[in-house]
Design a protein that fits this description.
Largest sheet: 6 strands, parallel
Order of helices and strands: EEEEEEEEEEE
Radius of gyration: 15 Å
CATH topology: Leucine-rich repeat, LRR (right-handed beta-alpha superhelix)
Number of domains: 1
Structural class: mainly beta
Distance between the termini: 31 Å
Strand order of the largest sheet: 1-3-5-7-9-11
Number of strands: 11
Shape: globular
Oligomer: single chain
CATH class: Alpha Beta
Strand content: 25-35%
Number of helices: 0
């Protein structure tokens, strides 16, 4: 099942009941006017291969339950107002190919393990609040085509 509702001027928050759509393989809600925190229940969608939530007005942390989305191929939350620790659980997403996290207010360290993900080709990160951040050596030896 596929749902593309991007660029439709949707407002409000994502209903927690979206987490009950177990057969959903792609959820695209980018470029709307959605607000609030991201529901933990989206972490139940283990069939998801794409999750696009970019260019909205989401706030708060990226829920730890999203660690369960290990089959993701494409994930974009860029251009929101998310904060809290950098979501290092992403290092368990071994299928991820495109990862877009820029334009948020994450803080803390970025795990070097993220740069070792075997399928990661496109990584977009900026706006991480950490004055001690150093670009990991692992990134230089990865198979990424866009960083």
């Amino acid at each position: 099942m596929f749902s593309s509702l991007s660029n439709n001027r949707l407002s409000g928050s994502i209903p927690a009941t979206f987490g009950n759509l177990k057969l959903l393989s792609s959820l695209k809600l980018g470029e709307n006017n959605l607000t609030g925190t991201l529901p933990d229940t989206l972490g139940n969608l283990k069939s998801l291969s794409s999750l696009w939530l970019q260019s909205n007005y989401f706030t708060g942390d990226l829920p730890e339950s999203y660690a369960n989305l290990s089959g993701l191929y494409s994930f974009s939350i860029s251009g929101n107002f998310l904060s809290g620790p950098f979501p290092n659980f992403i290092k368990s997403w071994t299928s991820i190919r495109t990862l877009s996290l820029y334009g948020n207010n994450f803080n803390g360290s970025i795990s070097p393990e993220i740069f070792k993900l075997p399928n990661l080709a496109n990584l977009m990160i900026s706006d991480v609040s950490n004055t001690s951040f150093q670009f990991p050596k692992e990134a230089k030896s990865s198979y990424m085509t866009n960083l």
